[in-house]
């Protein structure tokens, strides 16, 4: 079995994954959403201190598996360095104390592996990664060969939901709340412009800061917002935010075939986005792969699944050599 730890942002999570059949034997996650909500976003120092309290608590619950462990895995990049350090320190201590090899796992590869929990991997795979920190379109030949097809030039997809939510006075993280409001709203009421439409046809990139500013101007123009207007802003914003993703995805695959398409990351829980991706995949005769809702946002189960692959490749790292990196190599 592998014990895996995730602390790259504001979720403390530990999982135990069985090597032979990838079964998830234990998985617990403690989210810090409530603690950060009052600040309108994640406060790294506070997040690190909370990990220092919650990670050991979860670890105690996984103690009965210690004697059967074969390796310790931990997210070491990318993420907030002060929070990554909490998980990495714990992993190193466990590795030394239990005399077990150590695996450093890339958080983004972890998100890709959220599609394969308790299942076999499936490659080649094209992936849309939409989280609070990333908006990436990837061609994944395998976990060691990943080509970045497009990324964001400024805010990420999930971050734009959080920022619009903040402007509307909604608590952090606002993604799921905006989706809920959007269901009751008129998505055509506000005619926000889809970002990067007029740019050179060769540019494959995402941008969300302009859309966020359009929403800001709309909110300012309204003064006091009634409930229906908030719902209409959410619906109109979500429609355009997703339309931007879809426009660029369609452009990326205009002359490219795709057989398997996955969507991962916290914002991949958005059902409106999933619906649009379903339609795109149907048009390309591709299969859409989604993670179970509980594995969309940050969690150690996906890190453990990725670690099973790393374990079989002997990708172990010495305790002294495992470094924390805020961005990917
Ligand atoms: O993957 P994740 O848990 O953390 C990062 O690695 O960033 O993603 C969190 C992000 C937040 O920005 C949150 O607002 C967004 O995912 N999110 C959503 C939805 N659920 C979570 N965005 C849009 N619609 C949702 N239903
Ligand atoms: Zn993440």
Short description:
This protein has 329 residues and is of the alpha/beta class. 41% of the residues lie in helices and 19% in strands. The strands form two sheets. A five-stranded mixed beta sheet has the order 3-2-1-4-5, with helices on both faces. The protein has a five-stranded mixed beta sheet with strand order 8-7-6-9-10, sandwiched between helices.
Give a structural overview:
With 329 residues, the chain is an alpha/beta fold. The protein has 2 domains: 2-117 and 298-312, 2-Layer Sandwich (Nucleotidyltransferase, domain 5); 125-290, 2-Layer Sandwich (Nucleotidyltransferase, domain 5), CATH 3.30.420. The chain has helices spanning 33-37, 44-61, 81-98, 107-113, 157-167, 175-183, 209-222, 227-252, 271-284, 300-312; strands at residues 2-6, 11-17, 24-31, 71-77, 102-106, 125-130, 135-142, 145-151, 260-264, 287-290. The strands form 2 sheets. Strands 3-2-1-4-5 form a 5-stranded mixed sheet, with helices on both faces. Strand 6 and strand 7 (135-142) form a beta hairpin. Helix 8 packs parallel to helix 9 (271-284). The model has no long low-confidence stretch (mean pLDDT 96). The structure holds 5'-O-[(R)-(carboxyoxy)(hydroxy)phosphoryl]adenosine and zinc ion. It is found in: Cytoplasm. One of its GO terms (biological process) is tRNA threonylcarbamoyladenosine modification.
Pick out its properties.
binds 5'-O-[(R)-(carboxyoxy)(hydroxy)phosphoryl]adenosine; Nucleotidyltransferase, domain 5; binds zinc ion; 329 residues; five-stranded mixed beta sheet; 10 helices
Number of strands: 10
- The second-level CATH architecture of the largest domain is 2-Layer Sandwich
How many H/I helical runs? 10
What is the average of the pLDDT values? Answer: 96
Q: What is the gyration radius calculated from CA atoms?
A: 20 Å
Number of domains: 2
Largest sheet: 5 strands, mixed
SSE string, helices as H and strands as E: EEEHHEHEHEEEHHHHEHEH
Strand percentage: 15-25%
Query: Cofactors and ligands present?
Result: 5'-O-[(R)-(carboxyoxy)(hydroxy)phosphoryl]adenosine, zinc ion
Within the CATH hierarchy, at the fold level, what is the topology of the largest domain? Nucleotidyltransferase, domain 5
- Placed side by side, the strands forming the largest sheet appear as 3-2-1-4-5
Structural class comes to: alpha/beta
Q: Spans of 5+ residues with little confidence (pLDDT < 50)?
A: none
Q: Provide the CATH superfamily of the largest domain.
A: ATPase, nucleotide binding domain
N- to C-terminal separation?
28 Å
- The top-level CATH class of the largest domain is Alpha Beta
User: What is the helix content?
Assistant: 40-55%
Domain Gcp-like: 24-304
Keywords: Acyltransferase, Cytoplasm, Iron, Metal-binding, Transferase, tRNA processing
Enzyme class: transferase
GO cellular component, one term: cytoplasm
């Amino acid at each position: 079995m592998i014990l895996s730890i995730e602390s790259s942002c504001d979720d403390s999570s530990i999982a135990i994954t069985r090597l032979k059949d990838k079964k998830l034997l234990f998985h617990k996650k403690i989210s810090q959403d409530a603690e950060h909500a009052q600040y309108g976003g994640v406060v790294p120092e506070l997040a690190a201190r909370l990990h220092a309290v919650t990670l050991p608590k979860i670890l105690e619950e996984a103690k009965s598996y210690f004697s059967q462990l074969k390796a310790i895995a931990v997210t070491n990049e990318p993420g907030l360095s002060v929070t990554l350090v909490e998980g990495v320190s714990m992993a190193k201590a466990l590795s030394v104390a239990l005399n077990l090899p150590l695996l450093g796992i890339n958080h983004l590869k972890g998100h890709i592996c959220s599609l394969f929990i308790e299942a076999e991997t499936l490659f080649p795979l094209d992936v849309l990664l939409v989280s609070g920190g990333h908006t990436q379109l990837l061609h994944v030949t395998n976990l060691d060969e990943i080509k970045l097809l497009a990324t964001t030039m400024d805010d990420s997809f999930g971050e734009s939901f959080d920022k619009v939510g903040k402007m509307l006075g909604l608590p952090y993280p606002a993604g799921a709340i905006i989706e809920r409001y959007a269901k009751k709203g008129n998505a055509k009421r506000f005619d926000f412009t889809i970002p990067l439409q007029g740019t050179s046809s060769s540019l494959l990139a995402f941008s969300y800061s302009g859309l966020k500013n359009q929403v800001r101007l709309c909110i300012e123009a309204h003064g006091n917002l009634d409930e229906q207007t908030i719902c209409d802003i959410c619906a109109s914003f979500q429609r355009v935010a997703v339309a931007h993703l879809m426009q660029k995805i369609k452009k990326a695959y205009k002359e490219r075939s795709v057989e398997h398409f996955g969507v991962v990351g916290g914002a991949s829980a958005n059902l409106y986005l999933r619906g649009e991706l379903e339609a795109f995949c149907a048009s390309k005769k591709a299969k859409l792969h989604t993670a179970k809702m509980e594995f969309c946002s940050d969690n150690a189960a996906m890190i453990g699944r990725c670690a099973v692959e790393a374990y079989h490749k002997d990708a172990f790292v010495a305790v002294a050599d495992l470094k924390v990196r805020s961005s990917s190599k």
